[in-house]
């Protein structure tokens, strides 16, 4: 297969971890006979510094003309939290999602058996955790009308949703549940928010078309508690933009490190793949950032194009790095290996798998579909 992939490293550790993803994709390219063409572009704080905008037009054009996008991270301290700033890095990512109509963010949360001791939660609570969050990505409060009255110090952020926006991601979530444990949990705040009430009406109506799928509804506050008390009860979580942002970051804690979980942002024509962690500027250029989330995001890219054998081979190499304890300092308390070494090890161990796909106990709880 031939693919043209836009590479947006972004800020902080973003370029470093994405570089490890590229190593792994090049290994897949060589092992399985594909042709991947990578082209880098600016986004975020670096783009502001060099071009005066967080999303330059040439970056947007590249993304629109590419088969897929690999994204790193975004944000730098000099722009974060400045109330007087008229421009900030995150605007670039928000605009990119809107321009490409990336309406569904898919975030799998699995606990790797070899790293189960990394989680702050009790092993018995999390050992069977295997859920995926379907977060609506192009609507809601992040994109609503915003105002700030400096005279009265009153600020407003408008949250709005249409039936069509809710419907299209709901169908994706229910279709995903058909291939999983056949349960969808809608997370909202329907006791106080009109947008959440619309979500409930639309989702309940669509659920009738999927009689084999169990639908439950939880308020966001209860869902956040349940994710800590009993995360294995969840299969597919469906929710809006802001609630999904919160829950997916919380989900990363279950795995023991925010550097472990990948994500995909998809639309009808475009797809972007990124780790869920931030830019972590304090670790920039120190060779300590965990590249696994970025590498597994490349695995989701392979799955997106139905290259499932290749994705399995990539995940097998990641699991081998865990079993050999070749990990970055945030995992297992190790400080022996850095970002580049871990990336090299995983890339060097990507190989064709036998028909049984046996990876001893590492793979038993994960199942063959090791990313989603």
TrEMBL record:
EC number: 1.1.1.85
Catalytic activity as recorded in UniProt: (2R,3S)-3-isopropylmalate + NAD(+) = 4-methyl-2-oxopentanoate + CO2 + NADH
Function summary: Catalyzes the oxidation of 3-carboxy-2-hydroxy-4-methylpentanoate (3-isopropylmalate) to 3-carboxy-4-methyl-2-oxopentanoate. The product decarboxylates to 4-methyl-2 oxopentanoate.
Record's cofactor remark: Binds 1 Mg(2+) or Mn(2+) ion per subunit.
Protein name: 3-isopropylmalate dehydrogenase
Cofactor: Mg(2+); Mn(2+)
InterPro entries (UniProt xref): IsoCit/isopropylmalate_DH_CS (IPR019818), IsoPropMal-DH-like_dom (IPR024084), Isopropylmalate_DH (IPR004429)
Subunit structure: Homodimer.
GO CC terms in record: cytosol
Top-tier EC class: oxidoreductase
Entry-linked Pfam families: Iso_dh
UniProt superkingdom: Bacteria
Originating species: Maribacter cobaltidurans
Similarity section: Belongs to the isocitrate and isopropylmalate dehydrogenases family. LeuB type 1 subfamily.
Pathway(s) served: Amino-acid biosynthesis; L-leucine biosynthesis; L-leucine from 3-methyl-2-oxobutanoate: step 3/4
Keyword line: Amino-acid biosynthesis, Branched-chain amino acid biosynthesis, Leucine biosynthesis, Magnesium, Manganese, Metal-binding, NAD, Oxidoreductase
Any GO MF annotation of the entry: 3-isopropylmalate dehydrogenase activity
